[in-house]
Structure to design on (80 residues):
C-alpha cells in the first residue's frame, strides 16, 4: 500500500484538517488533525482512525500504524 492509498482511505472516512504519513508500505507513522477528535480521549481517537481502515488492519494490508492525533486547536498549539 502506498502513502497516497492510505491517505485516501483515512480521509474518505474521517474529516482531516491535516494528515501526514510516513512509512515503508507496512509500518506507518501518522499525524492526524481532525475536528472529529474534539472531546475524545486518545484511545477513542485511535479507534476512530482504525475504523476508517476496516479489515485492512486484520488482513495485514496495513501491518502497523502509529499515530499522533490532534484537534485543530491542539495542532495550532503544537505548531507554534
Amino acid at each position: 500500500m502506498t502513502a497516497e492509498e492510505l491517505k485516501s482511505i483515512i480521509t474518505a472516512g474521517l474529516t482531516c484538517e491535516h494528515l501526514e504519513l510516513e512509512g515503508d508500505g507496512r509500518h506507518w507513522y501518522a499525524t492526524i488533525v481532525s475536528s472529529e477528535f474534539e472531546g475524545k480521549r486518545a484511545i477513542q481517537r485511535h479507534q476512530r482512525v482504525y475504523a476508517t481502515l476496516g479489515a485492512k488492519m486484520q488482513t495485514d494490508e496495513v501491518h502497523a500504524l502509529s499515530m499522533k492525533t490532534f484537534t485543530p486547536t491542539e495542532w495550532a498549539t503544537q505548531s507554534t
Remarks:
- The helical segments are 3-13, 42-53, 72-79.
- Strands lie at 18-23, 27-33, 64-70.
- The two ends are 33 Å apart (CA to CA).
- The chain has a mean pLDDT of 92.
